[in-house]
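To: structure subgroup
Subject: Chain for Friday's discussion

All,

I'm putting the inputs and outputs inline so they're searchable in the archive.
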Amino acid sequence: MFDGKTKNGWHVYNNSTDGSAWKVVDGTLMLDPKAKGPNNAGGGDLIFEDDFENFHLKLEWKLEKGGNSGIIFQALEDKKFRWPWQTGPEMQILDDDNHPDGQIKTHRSGDLYDMISANPSKLNPIGEWNLFEIKAYNGRLEFYMNGTRVVQVNQWDDGWYELIEKSKFKSLPDFGRHKKGKIALQDHGDPVWFRNIKIRRL
């Protein structure tokens, strides 16, 4: 998905631009918040052009102290939505020790955000690279953190919709209901680096 040299295939959600604040630096795809203009110009969640249904996504990421980001998937790109998280679930990326969300269950790194806590946590220290994987196959969803499975759940059954009903997404009628959609790298306003972004259709 990322060749280490260009942003080919990537663009800002609901926008044709590739986002000038998203830069290719030393083989990484990084968000530089200082490069944004007024009203978040140049920023925004970066999404890949293809839709994915059954897939295995692998990527590495790192943050600065206090950073926050995420990987959103099965998201719809539609002008009636402002953000991909309004339709797509998220694997959280966070500095658990130094960001306020680190004190909230289901808001920590590796969590299915606001739905399921990663267990066990296998997070490397901030500033080091972490390997995250998302596997989605025929309704079976699994998250892996540095080689260890930390989340497993069935999507689109009664239990899945109960999780949504107990989450902050309960008022969003399109959230978590789509079997096919976009993958997005979240702009949460903090510097974040990604590399070795690879996906295999299953």
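Points worth raising on Friday:
The chain has a mean pLDDT of 97.
DSSP finds one helix and twelve strands in the chain.

D.
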